[in-house]
Amino acid sequence: MMKHRDKRVKKKVERWKKVLIVAIVLVILGAGGYAFRKPLAVMAFDLFLSGQVEQKLEKSYAPLEGEEPKPVSVVKQEKMEPFTALLLGVDQRGNEPARSDTMIYAVVRPEESRVLLVSIPRDTYTEIVGKDKEDKINHAYAFGGEKMAKDTVENLLENPIDYYAAINFEGLRQVVDALGGIELPITKDIVNKQKDHEKFTIKAGKPLYDGQEALNFVRYREDSDFNRTKRHQVFLNAIVNRVMQLDQVSKIPDLMDMLGENFKTDMTPSYIIDLSKKILLGNPPSISGFTIMGEGFRKDGIYYDAADEEDLEFAKEMIASWSDPDTTPEKLLMPDDKDKAEAGTEAEAQTESLERSN
User: Fold this and answer.
1) Which of 100, 82, 80, 81 has the alpha carbon at shortest distance from 90?
2) Can you name the CATH fold of 37-325?
C-alpha cells in the first residue's frame, strides 16, 4: 500500500514540475520577455522538432554523382563560414520534362545573416559543360540534371559552388498555402493573356497571396526575362520573411513533408538544421539581389540572351567578395556599387569633355 501511495505522490510531483516549467515559459513570454523569444524558439525546436525535421530532410538529401559529400565537421564549427549554393527553381507540369525556370547563384554569410542572389536569365547563351555545345543555360538541367547545371554555372561565373538546392514550384505552392499566404508587392493587376500562355489574373493590393497566386507571380512571362528574374528574387524574399515569423516554427515538419519529392539538395540534414538555428538566432536575413542583364539575339530562328560582359565581370567580382570570409561587412561589394561606379565614370568623362572644350 505504501508503494502505491509513493507512486501517486511521485506522479503528482512530476506533474507539478511540468506545470511549473510551462508557467515559467509563459511568464517569460508574456511578461516582457521579448528578448528571449528567439532562444526559446530554438530550444523548443531542439526539444520537439529537430529529430522530425532531420528525418524528413533525409528524404531530400541527394549528393551529386561523382562528388564527395561535404564533411560534417564543418557544420560543428562555432563560426559558420560563407558558402555558395546554386538555387534551381524547377517547373514541371504533368508529364512534361522538367526544366530549370530559375537559376540563382547564392552566397550566404551566416554570421551576418546576409544573402547575395545573382540571377541568371534562363535564355542566357553559354557553353553547356559536358555537352560540348553552346545553348540556353537552362537547357543544362534538361540535358544533365543538377550536376550539369552546377558545372555550367560554375564555368560561366568562374566561381565554385558548394551546394545545390532544387525546388519544384508545385511544392512551393503547397508551402505558401500552409504558411497562410505571403506578401507580394503587386501594385497593378498582373494578367497572363497571350493565346499560347496559361490564362490567369493576379489582383493588386492584396495583403496576402495564396500558393496559386504566388506560383502565377513567378511564372508570369509577358513583360521581360529581366523582370521575371527579379520576381523570382522577390518571391524567395517573401518566403523567407514569412517562415522567419516565430509563429511558423511549429509548422516546419509539416512544410518538410509538403516539399517531399519536390525538394532535393546535397546539404546534409544536420547542416541545414544548424544553419536554420543560426539564422533564427541572428538578425532577419538581409537579401541583396543582382541580375545579369543580356541583349537578345536570334540564331537559327531561336531566341537567346547574350550576357552583358560588364554585368558578368561585376557578378564574378561580387561573388568573390562575398565568398571571402576575410571580407568585412562594410567592404562587401554590393549590387548598387556597379551603378555608382558607372555614374562616377560618366561624371569624369563629362568633366574631361568640359575641360577640353574650355
Assistant:
1) 100
2) Aminopeptidase (3.40.630)
